[in-house]
């Protein structure tokens, strides 16, 4: 009986990594599946067992553990972090002059992918479809940026140098050359933070003397589902907590080899006299401990991103609840 | 019951003729696995629900068919509403817990950063 209980515990709580496949992947603890277990959803039980431990947090990435939540909901958070948290990115590129060898569309594509440091919560989505191309967009939904740069020969270079850094001025166009042009009252609202690319050293194009770029850009608010440039995370991922059990003692040279398989500090060897044989290793993953890693591109700090993602999921639920209510009243 | 005029439908209910209120397929527009899987998980945890599943009808259309079959004569909108409320409560609780743990961490100095990982049980012997 004890063996059956142990087996059931293992099926309910562990994902097993076998030699050729992964077992027990799907959640099976639904009401009625296991006699003797009450698996009905209970918010209080969830609240009692749920825990978040922040392991690492700095300004561009964070790692935290969620204990007691199912992979379905953790995956929903991950998907939202990747695709549904809005950010600002360059969308319309007005090229007044481009004599570089980078084609217009390639340049526009590269500019769109540059992360722009602007808090998207302070902006609205732009209404598409109503406006003509001429309309500039208002201060509440658009950021205007400008890139105006011309490459020229360096008059002070020595005669026989061949280093482009010495021969030419402005021959590498970096993202720090993109300047913010405040429209409307943006100059007052964003006076201390300023708006511009997150990183200064992104190479946009290369020029030679006589070539120039004169580009105006509009940034709008969007989500990653629309275009990956709007995704606020470098990546967001999660994994289950690994649990490794050695079924038999390992010793001698095998123990040394086993120790080398892991990162330093994971296994320590002890000095004991004895005999043994090869080991069998089982690797399990604890089903309810989820290790989340979020790396931000710098637009928003990672803890803000996670908060926004949770709010997005809540908004989705509220939207459908509203729909249900309004349709019931019809 | 689709929207009229130019309003795009967000949620539709499709019911087979002759079936009772307990077996309904909901069509949720502009949704995918993000809401579908998490909602399915919570609705399956409901004791009244006999069957719950969702499909994405075609990957180029962003809508899901969400089917709920209940037992005991419960109307199918009831578990759906309850599942949405529960998901909303879960999100609220996750948000609160996250804020609390961030605050706790910022009050600790220096920040403690540790976790046993991976957990290894067993004996390792080495012959001297």
Strand content of chain B: 25-35%
Principal-axes shape call of chain B: elongated
DSSP summary, beta strand count of chain B: 6
| Helix content, binned percent of chain B | 25-40%
Helix content of chain A: 25-40%
CATH fold group of chain B: Gyrase A, domain 2
Protein name (chain B): DNA-directed RNA polymerases I and III subunit RPAC2
Subcellular location (chain B): Nucleus
Keywords (chain B): DNA-directed RNA polymerase, Nucleus, Transcription
InterPro entries (chain B): RBP11-like, RBP11-like_dimer, RNA_pol_Rpb11_13-16kDa_CS, RNAP_AC19, Rpo11-like
Structure write-up:
The complex is a heterodimer of chains A (330) and B (128). Chain A has 8 helices and 17 strands. By secondary structure, chain A is an alpha+beta fold. In chain A, strand 1 and strand 2 (22-23) form a beta hairpin. In chain A, helix 3 (71-83) crosses helix 8. With 128 residues, chain B is an alpha+beta fold. Chain B has a single domain (11-105), classed as RNA polymerase, RBP11-like subunit (Gyrase A, domain 2, 2-Layer Sandwich), CATH 3.30.1360.10. In chain B, strand 3 (49-56) and strand 4 form a beta hairpin. In chain B, helix 1 (33-44) packs across helix 2 (77-107). The longest helix of chain B is centred in the last third of the chain and has 31 residues, at 77-107. Strand 16 (270-271) of chain A pairs parallel with strand 6 (125-126) of chain B, so a sheet runs across the interface.
């Amino acid at each position: 009986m004890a063996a059956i209980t142990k087996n059931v515990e293992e099926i309910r709580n562990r994902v097993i990594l076998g030699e050729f496949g992964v077992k027990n992947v799907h959640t099976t603890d639904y009401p009625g599946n296991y006699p003797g277990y009450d698996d009905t959803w209970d918010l209080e039980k969830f609240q009692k067992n749920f825990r978040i431990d922040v392991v690492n947090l700095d300004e561009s990435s964070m790692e935290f553990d969620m204990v007691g939540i199912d992979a379905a909901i953790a995956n929903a958070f991950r998907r939202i972090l990747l695709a549904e948290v809005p950010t600002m990115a360059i969308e319309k590129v007005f090229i007044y002059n481009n004599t570089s060898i980078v084609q217009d569309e390639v340049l526009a594509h590269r500019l769109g992918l540059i992360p722009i440091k602007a808090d998207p919560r302070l902006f609205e989505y732009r209404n598409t479809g109503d406006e003509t191309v001429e309309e500039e967009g208002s201060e509440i939904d658009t950021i205007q940026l400008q890139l105006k740069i011309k490459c020229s020969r360096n008059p002070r270079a020595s005669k026989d140098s061949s280093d482009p850094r010495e021969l030419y001025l402005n021959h590498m166009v970096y993202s720090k050359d993109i300047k913010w042009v405040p429209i409307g009252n943006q100059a007052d609202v964003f006076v201390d933070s300023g708006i511009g690319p997150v990183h200064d050293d992104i190479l946009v194009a290369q020029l030679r003397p006589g070539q120039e770029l004169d580009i105006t850009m509009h940034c709008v608010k969007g989500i990653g589902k629309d275009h990956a440039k709007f995704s606020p995370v470098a990546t967001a991922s999660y994994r289950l907590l690994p649990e490794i059990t050695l079924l038999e003692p390992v010793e001698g040279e095998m123990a040394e080899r086993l120790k080398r398989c892991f990162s330093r500090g994971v296994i320590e060897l002890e000095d004991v006299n004895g005999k043994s044989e090869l080991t069998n290793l089982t690797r399990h993953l604890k089903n309810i401990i989820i290790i989340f890693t979020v790396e931000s591109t710098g637009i928003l700090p990672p803890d803000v991103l996670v908060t926004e993602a949770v709010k997005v999921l809540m908004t989705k639920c509220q939207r459908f609840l509203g729909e249900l209510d309004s349709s019931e009243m019809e | 019951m689709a929207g009229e005029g130019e309003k795009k439908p967000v949620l539709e209910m499709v019911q087979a003729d002759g079936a009772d209120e307990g077996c309904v397929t909901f069509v949720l527009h502009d949704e995918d696995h993000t809401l579908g899987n998490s909602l399915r998980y919570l609705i399956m945890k409901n004791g009244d629900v006999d069957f719950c599943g969702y499909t994405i009808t075609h990957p180029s259309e962003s809508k899901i068919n969400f089917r709920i079959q209940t037992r005991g004569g419960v109307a199918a909108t009831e578990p759906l509403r309850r599942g949405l409320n529960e998901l909303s409560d879960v999100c609220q609780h996750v948000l609160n817990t996250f804020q609390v743990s961030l605050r706790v961490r910022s009050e600790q100095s220096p920040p403690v950063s540790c976790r046993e990982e991976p957990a290894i049980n067993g004996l390792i012997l080495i012959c001297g």
